């Protein structure tokens, strides 16, 4: 029987990088990792530079950009469709929730403001974003009047926002949730809805319907602000906040360092163990920047920075590759 394991590798960082931060975002296009936003001091945006990390040379640089450059922000999200990166929402230096959608063309290094104000989703931060080969999806987050539970899609070809039907009351408004497209469904995994929650829902893109599912197996405890990504029918989660700080966003809660995989067909969770050749496990953390991509020809999850149990911002980079080991062979 296959034992599901994973390999963690800590990546070297050459050049001058953006440094330690949390509540930031990354997107991967080819072998380039683009990082934007975040904080070092709680609730204070660091900068609005677009930092680029090359996965071949393991070197940081700062993109020489033109166009509508977004102001600094925290609690922002990014997702890539082809060679275009989309950046949505967040919270500015005065703690205002934002709702601008920007695109960044990695072939021309140009920023473009696509929508704001009444166009598209309402203002929010600490929402979640994912993408398929056609659309960028936005769900939830902290809105002006409370936590949200709405799902939107932006199609870059049609240049239009679409608002999907709202879910039922059992999918409470939340921030810091996991959002993944798998099996033609948009999955909402866990999050913070006034407390850490452990429910799983999906929106069926073909039938335009919501459903809540009951998962089983080695189910992770309730958590939020965790990295998440999908490969085929599997959704993988790492770390996250399992117990919030009594100081709110100013403090560090209790964090996990575990990796779990959810089979979206059987709805069975499996806890992944570290493979023998893993090096430098990232340990417990949350509020990280993360994205699925390829490194060294392997598909997996890149995790950059985040917040630690000591409330110190982190600046390291790790890449996680899941695999199954059968009778000693990988």
Automatic annotation (TrEMBL):
InterPro entries reported for this sequence: Kelch-typ_b-propeller
GO molecular function, one term: enzyme regulator activity
GO cellular component: a single term: nucleus
Keyword terms, alphabetized: Iron, Kelch repeat, Repeat
Record-level GO BP terms: glucosinolate metabolic process; nitrile biosynthetic process
Named cofactor requirement(s): Fe(2+)
Source domain of life: Eukaryota
Database matches in PANTHER family: KELCH REPEAT PROTEIN (AFU_ORTHOLOGUE AFUA_5G12780) (PTHR47435)
Name of the protein in question: Nitrile-specifier protein 5
Species, as recorded: Quillaja saponaria
